[in-house]
């Protein structure tokens, strides 16, 4: 029986959405979407108000339009409209890699910086609809660059600063960017990242780029190409401090973002202006129960969709105080997150399971020695959070006081889709719980038959959808239809599997491609992994299927032990028995490989497709590995696999 965590009384008192409101709003959002979104679309400032709300078709030549005849500007919504009321309030708290380095930027200051850069971009010939690639560290200029693109109507494509020159080049070529905005070097965990040198290398194969703007971050020695490369500071200092935002149609593109590549070649996901911003700001307000003046911190990088929607666009559209962190959770030591929480009195904290699991390994003391008394709410995103990690996050980080919002969503969805609302939802560790307003989850079996009640199946989403949904794959609308709408006609297919329980709560079981079929029993990887992680000696686990003569598929588990634990034959047996007891004999691992490291994407997600290939002894067919954080991990795993024969 799963433990239930009701809404704490203290939290309920101030919450924006209680259970009754959730039920009422949800019912209206799916029964009368035009009425519901027609009203909530007004949370934005429109230049020309919309008269149409939803025009969506998931069949035929899939087309998705929201607020289609309205016009607005995203940067004006994130900045200009706040100036009268909160011009001198902090918009961004920036915390540098070095703990002694931080600053506050007000809405007025941010507005001015964005106007200056908008003028620079216009002078460099950037026009509405042009693509701009942003390859920056987590510095304020990253947010400025995004907002300046939005202001002039250019489409930004952010490439995470940890990506290689090749990965960067591929993403520049895919969308033909004419401008790249980068920095001399980045700074992460005390180490320098050669951003400009990477750009130089990438541009050897990119002919579309005419100009490169370079922010001075470290002052490191870099090469500037005359005529092509310009110092950001020099041009913005000379540029005008005011700029009139370009009037954009609600369906004009806002950005392209490539998915993390967990399952294969990244897709250039395209989001547009009005619907995206409405959904990002609404989810930010209600999922995080954001109140005026709260200090909110999302630890993602702006290179991921989480950084787009929940560091920059959602919070700034809401006039929030958003914290941007340049560094990493373990520098100078594993207590850094909580020191930053205390330093800036953070109220709302949003991070990823991979960070939680890695900090769990370091022990409670690193957390407990800080106060964290400002924290009111915690959040998780990116992967299923194992109940073990959830309980640790709740007890150790949140002192049993803070609700946790486990938010399920995707680059493609633009914003959070399945999540608790902290003032309304009783929590179950490991469950993303219930759909947000407008979201209609549907469970289907392999043949596409819709399943009712408490079941496990493939997670799809039904029309009309929600305004923040992606509109197409940049330059390839056919692939868009094929990838998301052809597997189960009439539905958007998420690629994820889920279980719906008797209370209507959703449990994401992992990617459907990762489902294991043992002697006819289908099993999500998340469940077996969570059982392993629940063992006191296990820090992390990844489970995949491999061909098995009798069972069809066997269970192959890669296990990382907590620091100081030795891998022994005895422990191996103990773990097999443990999973057998936790889930049942059907789930007991057939093979356990000790793995000091697991292959992860740069956003920290385990790449099971690579582990599957290794388990299958197919080392030659690892597929696209360009988004891998540390390729040497794979070599080590292969070597161990071979040693075992
Ligand atoms: P690609 O689509 O290129 O393979 P990706 O799916 O990892 O990469 P993202 O859009 O960054 O790219 O991640 C979305 C996926 O992350 C979801 O489909 C889901 O598998 C997983 N995910 C995100 N949040 C959660 C969550 N709270 N619980 C479970 N899974 C989650
Ligand atoms: Mg995906």
Automatic annotation (TrEMBL):
Q: Which HAMAP family match?
A: Ac_CoA_synth (MF_01123)
What cellular component GO annotations does this protein have?
cytosol
Q: Which InterPro entries match?
A: Ac_CoA_lig, ACAS_N, AMP-bd_C, AMP-bd_C_sf, AMP-binding_CS, AMP-dep_synth/lig_dom, ANL_N_sf
Cite the Acetyl-coenzyme A synthetase N-terminal domain residue spans from the record.
Answer: 22-78
AMP-dependent synthetase/ligase domain location: 80-465
CDD domains (UniProt xref) = ACS
Q: Which residues form a coiled coil?
A: none
N6-acetyllysine: which positions carry it? Answer: 605
The Gene Ontology terms for molecular function here are: acetate-CoA ligase activity; AMP binding; ATP binding; metal ion binding
Q: Which UniProt keywords apply?
A: Acetylation, ATP-binding, Ligase, Magnesium, Metal-binding, Nucleotide-binding
Q: What does this protein do?
A: Catalyzes the conversion of acetate into acetyl-CoA (AcCoA), an essential intermediate at the junction of anabolic and catabolic pathways. AcsA undergoes a two-step reaction. In the first half reaction, AcsA combines acetate with ATP to form acetyl-adenylate (AcAMP) intermediate. In the second half reaction, it can then transfer the acetyl group from AcAMP to the sulfhydryl group of CoA, forming the product AcCoA.
Q: Note the NCBIfam families from the entry.
A: Ac_CoA_lig_AcsA, PRK00174.1
Q: Which residues bind CoA?
A: 188-191, 306, 519, 580
The entry's family comment says:
Belongs to the ATP-dependent AMP-binding enzyme family.
Q: List each copy of the AMP-binding enzyme C-terminal domain by range.
A: 527-605
**PANTHER family reported for this sequence:** ACETYL-COENZYME A SYNTHETASE, ACETYL-COENZYME A SYNTHETASE 1
Q: Which residues bind Mg(2+)?
A: 533, 535, 538
Post-translational modification remark: Acetylated. Deacetylation by the SIR2-homolog deacetylase activates the enzyme.
Name under which the protein is recorded:
Acetyl-coenzyme A synthetase
Q: Which reaction does it catalyse?
A: acetate + ATP + CoA = acetyl-CoA + AMP + diphosphate
* Essential cofactor(s): Mg(2+)
One Gene Ontology term of the biological-process aspect is:
acetyl-CoA biosynthetic process from acetate
Naturally occurring in which organism (per UniProt)? Magnetospirillum gryphiswaldense (strain DSM 6361 / JCM 21280 / NBRC 15271 / MSR-1)
Question: What are the EC numbers?
Answer: 6.2.1.1
């Amino acid at each position: 029986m799963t433990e239930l965590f009701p809404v704490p009384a203290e939290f309920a008192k101030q919450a924006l959405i209680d259970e009754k409101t959730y039920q009422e709003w949800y019912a209206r959002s799916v029964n009368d979407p035009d009425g519901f979104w027609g009203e909530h679309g007004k949370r934005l400032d429109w230049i020309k108000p919309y008269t149409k709300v939803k025009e969506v078709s998931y069949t035929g030549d899939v087309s998705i339009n929201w607020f289609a005849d309205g016009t607005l500007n995203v940067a004006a919504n994130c900045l200009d409209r706040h100036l009268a009321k909160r011009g001198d309030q902090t918009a961004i708290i920036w915390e540098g890699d070095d703990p002694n380095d931080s600053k506050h930027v007000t809405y007025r200051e941010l507005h001015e910086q964005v106007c200056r850069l908008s003028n620079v971009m216009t002078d460099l010939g950037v026009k509405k609809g042009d693509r701009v690639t942003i390859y920056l560290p987590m510095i304020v200029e990253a947010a400025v660059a995004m907002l300046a693109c939005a202001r002039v109507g250019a489409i930004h494509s952010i490439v995470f600063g940890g990506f290689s020159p090749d990965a960067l080049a591929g993403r520049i070529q895919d969308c033909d960017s004419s401008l790249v905005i980068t920095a001399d070097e980045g700074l992460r965990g005390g180490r320098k990242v050669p951003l400009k040198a990477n750009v130089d290398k990438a541009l050897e194969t990119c002919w579309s780029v005419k100009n490169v703007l370079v922010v001075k971050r470290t002052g490191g020695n870099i090469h500037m190409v005359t005529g092509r490369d310009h110092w950001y500071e020099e041009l913005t200092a000379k540029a005008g401090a005011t700029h009139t935002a370009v009037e954009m149609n609600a369906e004009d593109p806002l950005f392209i973002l490539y998915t993390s590549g967990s399952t294969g070649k990244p897709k250039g996901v395209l989001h547009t202006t009005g619907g995206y911003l409405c959904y990002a700001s609404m989810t930010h307000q209600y999922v995080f129960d954001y109140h005026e003046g709260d200090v909110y911190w999302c630890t993602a990088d702006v290179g991921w969709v989480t950084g787009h929607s929940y560091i920059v666009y959602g919070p700034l559209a809401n006039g929030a105080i958003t914290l941007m962190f340049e560094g990493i959770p373990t520098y100078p030591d594993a207590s850094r997150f909580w020191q930053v929480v205390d330093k800036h009195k953070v109220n709302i904290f949003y991070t990823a399971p991979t960070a939680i699991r890695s900090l769990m390994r370091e022990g409670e003391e690193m957390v407990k020695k800080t106060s964290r008394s400002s924290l009111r709410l915690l959040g998780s995103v990116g992967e299923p959070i194992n109940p073990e990690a959830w309980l640790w996050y709740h007890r150790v980080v949140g002192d049993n006081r803070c609700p946790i919002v486990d938010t399920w969503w995707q680059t493609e969805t633009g914003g959070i889709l399945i999540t608790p609302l902290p003032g309304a939802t009783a929590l179950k560790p490991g469950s993303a719980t219930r759909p947000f307003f407008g979201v209609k989850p549907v469970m289907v079996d392999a043949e596409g038959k819709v399943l009712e009640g408490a079941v496990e199946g493939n997670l799809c989403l039904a029309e009309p959808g929600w305004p923040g949904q992606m509109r197409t794959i940049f330059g390839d609308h056919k692939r868009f239809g094929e990838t998301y709408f052809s597997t189960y006609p009439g539905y958007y297919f998420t690629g994820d599997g889920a279980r719906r329980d008797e209370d209507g709560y959703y449990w994401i079981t992992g990617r459907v491609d990762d489902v294991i079929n043992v002697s006819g029993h289908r099993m999500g990887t998340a469940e077996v992994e969570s059982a392993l992680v629940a063992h006191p000696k296990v820090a992390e686990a990844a489970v995949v299927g491999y061909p098995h003569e009798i069972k069809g598929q066997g269970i192959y588990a890669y296990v990382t032990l907590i620091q100081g634990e030795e891998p022994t034959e005895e422990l191996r047996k103990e773990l097999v028995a443990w999973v057998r007891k936790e889930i049942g004999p059907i789930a007991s691992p057939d093979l356990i490989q000790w793995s000091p490291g697991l292959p992860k994407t740069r956003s920290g997600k385990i790449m099971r497709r690579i582990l599957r290939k290794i388990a299958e002894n197919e080392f030659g067919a690892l597929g696209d590995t360009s988004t891998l954080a540390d390729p040497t991990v794979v070599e080590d795993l292969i070597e161990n696999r071979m040693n075992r024969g």
